[in-house]
Amino acid sequence: MASHQEMRANPRTLRVFAAAKINLFLHVGERRSDGYHDLESLVAFADVGDELLFTDSVESRLNIRGPFADGLAGDESNLVSRAAVAMSKRFGPARGAHITLEKNLPVASGIGGGSADAAATLRGLSQLWGTNADMTTLREIAESLGSDVPVCLASVPSWMEGRGERLTAIPNLPGLSMVLVNPAVAISTSEVFAALKQRRGVGIRRPSSFATVDALLEFLQATTNDLEPPAAAAVPMIKEALEALRNTVGVGLARMSGSGATSFALYKDAAHASAAASAISRAKSKWWVRKASFYSLNANQ
């Protein structure tokens, strides 16, 4: 498991890692009166992600760079900017920061890049400003920013329910290697939900633990991602990516994450994952392909 410590480069700067979020399964319930759907998901995190650099400053500014910078606006609509404004309102309008976002994850790709960036902003500014804010306070702010922000704030394997606000940490989730594939296409979450026709619904029995890799894979085989069919219908390349992953040697499970278009495959050993990532990268040079491992913020602090 790679180490991505949140650390100060000097007394006035802080570097924070924003791990990719992986929905190992995702079941969707009925639409609620508040417009959200009830969800149920086992969420893990990968040791690939975005990075944010915070420099203490009176004024606030966001700079975006990296391979996927062109897909994002650096204005007040960006989730990083919204998170910074929310922190400033909570802890003092005189506080600011220069924030540099290194955008390494594809945009609108189902692996929580924007949510992870917002969550990293909450953690980073809290530490930079010395707020001593507890997790309950930061969770309240996270919930106001988006359904995936609370789970990304903790960045530990979690059972997620409600619209994303009810979280139960899953300690000692067995480690697996994985390959992440995005076929170089973005997809709208709202459009995927709008096209959803069949759903598994919520209420699956939550295991007390996953003692072994085989137990985890066996459980996941009995689950689904309810958003995979409508997303794949809208973007046929998702089916192509899933087929490529399922045809690799040693794959234990291949599935789309979130609302897509990123898919993942799980492997018991790193060698098979590395070989799969290399093979898909050679065959599909324009796709985003990354070999990764499970990540937990608690294990990297």
Tags for this entry?
single chain, 301 residues, alpha+beta, Ribosomal Protein S5, domain 2, Alpha-Beta Plaits, 2 domains, eleven-stranded mixed sheet, 11 strands, 30% strand
CATH class of the largest domain: Alpha Beta
- Tell me the strand percentage band: 25-35%
Number of self-contained structural domains: 2
CATH topology of the largest domain: Ribosomal Protein S5, domain 2
* H and E string: EEEEHEHHHEEEHHHHEEHE
**Helix/strand class:** alpha+beta
Low-confidence stretches: none
The first-to-last residue Cα distance is 13 Å
Number of helices, counting only DSSP H or I runs of 4 residues or more: 9
Question: Please, could you describe this protein's structure?
Answer:
The structure is a single chain. The chain starts with 6 loop residues before the first strand and ends in a 6-residue tail after the last strand. The protein has nine helices and eleven strands. It has 301 residues and is α+β, with helices and mostly antiparallel strands. It folds into two domains: 7-169, 2-Layer Sandwich (Ribosomal Protein S5, domain 2), CATH 3.30.230.10; 177-299, Alpha-Beta Plaits (2-Layer Sandwich), CATH 3.30.70.890. Helices cover 31% and strands 30% of the residues. Strands 1, 2, 3, 4, 5, 6, 7, 8, 9, 10 and 11 form an eleven-stranded mixed sheet that branches. The protein is globular and about 55 Å long. Helix 1 packs parallel to helix 2 (113-129).
